[in-house]
Amino acid sequence: xxxxxxxxxxxxxxxxxxxxxxxxxxxxxxxxxxxxxxxxxxxxxxxxxxxxxxxxxxxxxxxxxxxxxxxxxxxxxxxxxxxxxxxxxxxxxxxxxxxxxxxxxxxxxxxxxxxxxxxxxxxxxxxxxxxxxxxxxxxxxxxxxxxxxxxxxxxxxxxxxxxxxxxxxxxxxxxxxxxxxxxxxxxxxxxxxxxxxxxxxxxxxxxxxxxxxxxxxxxxxxxxxxxxxxxxxxxxxxxxxxxxxxxxxxxxxxxxxxxxxxxxxxxxxxxxxxxxxxxxxxxxxxxxxxxxxxxxx
Length: 297
Description:
Layout: E1 4-6, H1 12-17, E2 26-29, E3 32-35, H2 40-57, E4 75-80, E5 84-91, E6 99-106, H3 111-127, E7 134-141, E8 147-154, E9 159-161, H4 162-178, H5 185-205, E10 208-209, E11 217-220, E12 226-228, E13 235-236, H6 239-242, H7 248-296
Antiparallel strand pairs: 1-7, 2-3, 4-5, 5-6, 6-8, 7-8, 9-11, 10-13, 11-12
């Protein structure tokens, strides 16, 4: 019985671990023939990620290579969130044949639901080019009986975390001011702010609520593009949030009731005006009658 439950295409993990099983059918990824059915690559990748996770959990992140991978390293630490840790995985030799992937290992009580939820919202956002692409994902049952989720996704080259970007450009701004030069930083921050607002509005359009959004976005240091990067706590924007605590059904009822009340008020006003006109007409008629009687005398 396999320790792997595959959910994605079942291609990427074989490619990035360079494991091929000649007895299984093959698939093609990026022009290379790779295994579609074997779980060898998925198991190896999960074990490697767990080994790196242990180093991080033991409080030794310095033992992990940084994102800028040294020549001989294949794994590097990118960051971590509430439920998972993300590593960059190098495939091939540095240079032309090199491909980089971001691999996330997730641990949670309801891991199956958690994994599907995160992948669902990230894929939704990735279609709008506001999140990394998801290439593959699966569950790995460890020897201790616990299961972990693995997501293999696009590595965002030239992107850094929001707080790192702010710190970097604030220092640059200080440098320009110290040398009495015109700083480009305010213009850069303006461009980033605009892109950040666009990202938030797109997430709203997709009805995705990211409670920890302010700490989970990355900025491209060349184009100033902004992407959301952690969908571990993603939730749908509820109708209660969208409609001030009321459901759409309640809103429809209220609108219908409001229309009826407006119509009723208009009818009452119309009746009142008709009555008023009749009374005025009646008073005028009475006055004429009185004047006529007086003239006859």
